[in-house]
Amino acid sequence: MSGTSLSAARILLIIGGGVAAYKALDLIRRLRERGAKVRVIMTRAAKQFVTPLSAASLSSEKVYDDLFSLTDEAEMGHIELSRAADLLVVAPATADLIARMANGLADDLATTALLATDKKTLLAPAMNLRMWLHPATQRNVATLQKDGALFVGPTEGEMACGEFGPGRMAEPLDIVAAVEAALAEPTTLPLPPVARAPRDEKPLAGTHVLITSGPTHEPIDPVRFIANRSSGRQGHAIAAAAAAAGARVTLVSGPVAIPDPPGVAAIHVESAREMLEAVEKALPADIFVAAAAVADWRVAEIGANKLKKGSSGGPSLKLVENPDILASVAQSPSRRPAVVVGFAAETENVLAHARDKLLKKKCDLIVANDVGEGTGVFGGRTNLVHLVSKDGVESWPSLDKSEVAARLVERLAAMRDAAK
Ligand SMILES: Cc1cc2nc3c(=O)[nH]c(=O)nc-3n(C[C@H](O)[C@H](O)[C@H](O)COP(=O)(O)O)c2cc1C
User: Fold this and answer.
1) Does the annotation mark 161 as catalytic?
2) How confident is the model at residue 200 (pLDDT cuts 50, 70, 90)?
């Protein structure tokens, strides 16, 4: 079976030294079939069971095994290995690795990467049943679970040693299902935030980025309006990330309850027509990101005074279409920014609607998300997005909105460079 359920997910797979290590090779294949990028660390003991060459061939990546290798540090430091992953997977998780993790040891590359991360770890234990049932292992598993580690298996069955009981590693497809489930949740552990040292290079330096964010309010009368549930969190996070990347940022925001991000020029508007006017005034820009949830319709005739209850039942509101801000910027004959990105918040057929929007509005990228009931996207802190462009669809795992913003800004910089 193949598919794209893990499209663009970045997995750091740590292979421990157990008989089940051979199944980790199949796991690499299964993860990659579904679109994941897999980078492998092998422990010293793991190399007694499977070769780094097999893991490198199946992952199409260099396999890492040495904490003190100077070339590896130059190419990809040990901290960067876990930072560049969405999820860490340990398979097979030996009794020894579980014990070292539970005690916070960092005496080889595998355990150092496992300790130097704020990402979740999924363990697939595999060991002799007496090792698994030993109070020391059970104590270590309980400690790791308390720390937020996820487990899949072990299952019951016949062991390589001939005994029968719990300790067999979960099958690769069951581990894949556990990876998918883990990625559907936020993958960052609730640790205190760590400030990153400012970098010299600012990918959006010298670029004007124009962003819309939040909902619009369409007045019915002087006291009432039609609104939607957009909180502005995602658009504001993109504005903050673009500013941090060195861009001059203009943020045109509908009414929101969150503060303006630092370092951006914020313009506050209420209705779709005001938003369009502010956007037109702020042009020209190099990049336009339409993240606002702009009302499709407004009330045709706004009451001059507060509408009153009458004997003839409720008033009927006639709605007329609002201007299409995204389409008008994307199709501007003289002032179209080099990169135009729209958002599609949908409750059904998310990808089909997004593709349709990409073509109809003539933008370069649509960031599509499901905002249906129960997704918690509107107003929430996380987002699960699909990037739809003429090249296809790239689905990201569930991420904090600030992480979606940081990744999107990297993409915007690359798109701006490609458009030059
Ligand atoms: C033939 C053989 C099979 C082993 N199988 C396992 C196993 O399935 N699970 C386990 O936890 N340890 C197993 N061990 C012991 C580990 O290899 C040993 O604890 C090693 O130190 C683990 O290193 P690592 O955790 O760094 O990979 C096995 C050892 C041998 C010699």
Assistant:
1) yes
2) low
